[in-house]
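User: Some background: our group keeps a shared notebook of sequences we're curious about, and every so often someone picks one and asks for a predicted structure to add to the entry. Today it's my turn. The entry only has the sequence so far, pasted here. Could you supply the structure so I can complete it?
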Amino acid sequence: MFDAFRRFRKNQRGNVGIIFALAAVPAFALMGGIVDYANIQDERHKLQAALDAGVLAALKEGIRDEQRARDRVWQYLQTNYKASPRVQYDRAGLAITIGTPRDPNASVMTADMSVEIRTSFLGLLGIGSMSMQISSQAVKGNKTVEVVLVLDASYSMTCNASGFDPSVDEETYTKRVQAREAVADFIDRLKSKLDETPGVRMKLGVVPYSTYVRLPHVRGGAVPDWVRLSGVTSSTWKGYLGPRNPADELDAIDGDYDTYPVPGVAPKYKEDATTVYEIGDPLPSIKPLKDLSIQANVDELRNHVQGMISEGPAYIPSGIAWGWRVLSSRAPFDEGESDNVRKVMIVLAGGSNLCEYDHDGLMKYYGAADTANADARMEAVCNAAKQHGIEIIGISFYPKGYENLPTILGNCQNAGFHTAGNKAQLKNVLDQIAEEIVRPGGRQLYLSH
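Assistant: Of course. Here's the predicted structure to add to the notebook entry:
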C-alpha cells in the first residue's frame, strides 16, 4: 500500500495540463488585448475624421455661436460616423470653443469630445472599457505671418550697374538708393494688401547688416545681459554685435546665451594683419517685429529703410542669424509668436561675403576671391533656420562683380530665389513676394491639430 501511495505522489503527468490552464487565461487576455487595441484605434480614427469634418463645416459657415456650432458638429458626427455598438458618446460630452484665450474674435474653432469604448477581451483583466478624449481645431484665415527683411547695408551697395564708378551720380544710380526705395514701396504694398484682405495678421522686422549688425543702443546705456563686451566698454559701445564664435557654429545652434553671450564689439574691421579700419557713420539698427495693422509702425519701418546708409564690407551670415532671432519667440528678441505662425525671411544682398572672423574680436576683410569659410558659415546658419520652419527667400541685387552671390543665396533659400538688375526689376520681384505672402487663397480653412 505504501508503494502505491508513493507512486501516486510522484506522478506529474497532470501538472502540465494545470499549468497550461493557468497560463492560458493571461495569454488569451494578452492576445485579445492586442485585438481590442486595434479596434479602439480604428474607432478613434473614424471619430477623428468625422469630428474634423464637422468643425471645418461649422467654421466655413461662419457660425460664431458656440451652441449652434455644437449642434452643427453633432449633426456631422451623426451623419459621418457609423458608431459601433462598443462606442458610447453623447452630446453632453461634446464641447466647442470659438476663438482663443488671447484673441476671442479669432477665426479658430476647437472641439473636444469624451468617448467611452467597451473592450471585448481586456475585460478578463478587469478592464471593461477605455475612455479617451478626441480633439479637433480648425482655423479660418492665414496663419499670422511674420516677415523679416535682411538688407545689405555694406559698401557693396554703393556701386551701380557698372561697378564702382565715381562719375555716376550716387544718389540716383547706386544699388543702395534703388534698394531702399523699392523696399520702402514693398512695405507700403504689404500694408495695402493687408487692408484688402481682412483677417490676415502680419508683423514685419528689419535687419540691416554689413560687417556686423547693430542694436538701437545709446552710448552709455544699459548693456543687455546676453551681450559680452569685447574690446569696448559700456561707455563707448555703440551697439555693434559680432558673430558668436563661428568655429563652434554658435550662431547656427542659437541658444545658451548665458554661457556664450553675443560679443558686443567696436565698429572696426581689419584690412590686413595690422591695419584696422573703423566704420564711420552708424550702421542702421535692427528693428524688431512690429504689427503692420498699425500705421505708425508702417511709417516707422518705411522711414528706417529710406534712411539706410552703407558702411563696411559684408558678412551675410550675421544678417541671417539675426533675422532668425528677430522671428523667434524667445530671447534675445521675443516679439515673434510660436503657434500657427508662418515665418518668412527675405534676404536682399548686393555683394558676397567679404569678411571672416579673425579670432581677435574683429572681422577681417578678405575680398570676394577668398570667402569659403564665410560661405560655409552662411550655409550652416541658413540650414538651421530652415530646420526651425523659416521660409527663406533670396534676392540677388546687381550681382555684377560678385559672381558667387547667386550661388550662395540659391543654396540658402527654400522658398524662392530672384535676381534683379535695377529698381524696376527689384520692385517687380518684391510685388510678387507681397502677393504670395498676403494671398487671398491663404484664407482657406485648415486643421491645426
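Suggested note for the entry: The chain has two domains: 2-140, 144-442. The chain is about 35% helix and 20% strand.
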